[in-house]
Write a structure and sequence with these properties.
The chain has a single domain, classed as Rossmann fold (3-Layer(aba) Sandwich). 37% of the residues lie in helices and 30% in strands. The longest helix is centred in the middle third of the chain and has 13 residues. 38% of the residues are buried.
């Protein structure tokens, strides 16, 4: 696989300048702010109170807004969005609602609008390091099945690449893992020594911290 950065891939794949974008499951809002810097007007939608507080505490960036909401009931009008982004988030939608989340994406899109779905594959050293805390093999497969089964969106392209995850410290790794799902915190702390050993074994040291390989898949779909 080609080695690429997630943030580079999204701006190279999508024409963001002047586009109205919804980032579903926007987390701490870092991608919202990144896309706005490339000329997009971005609405971030997030359901986690913890992540919402982090997103709202960040320095304001023009043309951005962060709101509470879920993918299966987007707080946005129909037919007025150019791009909907699911960045590492479709597999976090409850499986029963993954199809509905894609239908919602189609609802809010204007004619010719696109959906960008980036998902980590259930493989690679970063996945193996995280797996003892929360094995997402099944939910990631279900997310892929949902997008393949979607009839209101048509496939445009699919590609894979290798992204390097960099964690400055083991504490930074812990923060990243538990921020996506608060239920992981107790499991993580109960397995601290085992996870520290995996972190040391699977990561490669650099001046920036610890690096881990994570294979990624991107699917671009358009409103049918």
């Amino acid at each position: 696989m080609d080695r690429r950065r997630n943030t580079d891939v999204i701006v190279e794949t999508l024409a963001l300048e002047g586009k109205r974008v919804i980032d579903v499951g926007c987390g701490d809002g870092s991608l919202v702010r990144h896309m706005a810097k490339f000329g997009a007007q971005v609405l971030g939608v997030e359901c986690s109170p913890y992540q919402l507080s982090k997103a709202r505490a960040a320095a304001a960036v023009p043309r951005t807004e962060i709101v509470e909401g879920v993918g299966q009931a987007l707080p946005a009008p129909s037919g007025q969005t150019d791009i909907v982004v699911f960045f590492n988030s479709l597999h976090h939608v409850p499986p029963a609602f993954m199809g509905k989340a894609l239908e919602e994406a189609a609802r809010v899109l204007c004619p010719g609008g696109q959906v960008y779905i980036s998902e980590p594959l259930a493989e690679g050293l970063f996945f193996q390091t995280c797996r003892p805390v929360d094995d997402e093999t099944e939910v990631r497969a279900l997310a892929y099945q949902a997008l393949k089964a979607c009839t209101v969106l048509k496939p445009v392209q699919e590609f894979r690449y290798l992204h390097t995850m960099t964690m400055k410290t083991f504490s930074a790794f812990r923060e990243r893992i538990i921020s996506a799902n608060s239920e992981r915190e107790a499991r993580f702390d109960a397995m601290g020594e085992e996870l520290q050993a995996l972190f040391n074994a699977n990561g490669s040291r650099s001046e920036d911290g610890w690096n881990f390989e994570q294979p990624m898949r991107v699917n671009v779909l358009a409103k049918a």
